[in-house]
Design a protein that fits this description.
136 residues; alpha/beta; Rossmann fold; 5 helices; 15% strand
Length: 136
């Protein structure tokens, strides 16, 4: 299965770890090519780079293009900013992309209690509770 992985790039190392595990299981898993500039950076550096990529590298469109032809999206919704299972604005848009492209949507953790919970529920994601063997 061809699987795009989305989530806060604050967790780029964890996202890459899961990408590699999915590949070992035979999936064609990928993240945005923009991740390379984020590996090994401090939180301050990450924030600056992420903003630069949003405004100057068209990060949203880069991931949209990568998702063409994918079968599924895995959302790495980890705890961030004191929000359990956080899903940010960019990731919410990426969930929307996957839905419109008729791709399966998997959430690493349950849907967070955020203002747009109903929008996430509406796309009927499969919560895998951190178990990548449930991605089918």
């Amino acid at each position: 299965m061809r699987i795009g992985i989305a989530g806060s790039m604050q967790f780029v190392e964890k996202i890459l770890e899961i990408r590699d595990k999915l590949r070992k299981l035979g999936h064609d898993a990928f993240v945005t090519d923009l991740h390379k500039a984020l590996v090994g950076k401090t939180e301050e550096e990450l924030e600056k780079i992420k903003l630069y990529q949003k405004y100057n590298r068209d990060a949203i469109r880069v991931f949209w293009k990568a998702m063409q032809g994918a079968d599924a999206l895995l959302v790495m919704n980890l705890d961030k900013n004191n929000v359990k299972n956080y899903i940010g604005g960019n990731t919410l848009m990426e969930i929307g992309f996957a839905h419109v492209l008729n791709q399966k949507i998997f959430l690493w953790n349950p849907i967070p209690d955020m203002n747009y919970r109903t929008e996430i529920e509406a796309v009927k994601p499969v919560v895998i509770d951190g178990d990548i063997s449930r991605i089918k």
